[in-house]
Design a protein that fits this description.
Elements lengths: L12 E11 L2 E10 L3 E7 L8 E8 L4 E20 L5 E13 L2 H21 L2
Antiparallel strand pairs: 1-2, 1-4, 2-3, 3-6, 4-5, 5-6
Length: 128
């Protein structure tokens, strides 16, 4: 966690877990790398047919046992080889993407913010 980064409005917490990404009406899972009240970084296999700049997310709020739905836009995406090729001969790629949350209900955004800030404060107090 970095608190001295002037780009950050909220703390960012490392959070291993899963979230859902909806593209073209299909829910696919992605691994969560870290989470803040205003965005999420996730990883998943890259599928060029499913790639979109705007995505709908299903995010499990840590320590609350609630799921929120949000829409966000991709702020960055880094691709790296995974090994192997697809049926069409294209290489298989792994994608790590940062997504800024654009739209969710006020209740869901407050719940996410409170959970992230609470976990960050607890980890800071513990010295992690």
């Amino acid at each position: 966690m970095r608190y001295d980064d002037p780009r950050r409005l909220f703390p960012r917490i490392a959070l291993p877990g899963l979230c859902g990404v909806v593209n073209q009406g299909e829910l696919r899972h992605a691994s969560v790398v870290d989470l803040s009240a205003s965005g999420i970084r996730l990883e998943r296999p890259f599928d060029p047919a499913q790639a979109r700049r705007t995505v709908q997310l299903e995010i499990e709020v840590p320590d609350v046992d609630e799921v929120i739905w949000a829409t966000g836009h991709v702020t960055f995406a880094h691709l790296r080889p995974m090994g192997g090729v697809h049926e069409n001969g294209q290489p298989r790629l792994w994608c790590r993407a940062g997504i800024a949350l654009d739209n969710a209900s006020g209740r869901d955004l407050r719940m996410l913010r409170d959970a992230v800030v609470g976990i960050a404060a607890l980890r800071l107090a513990r010295g992690r």
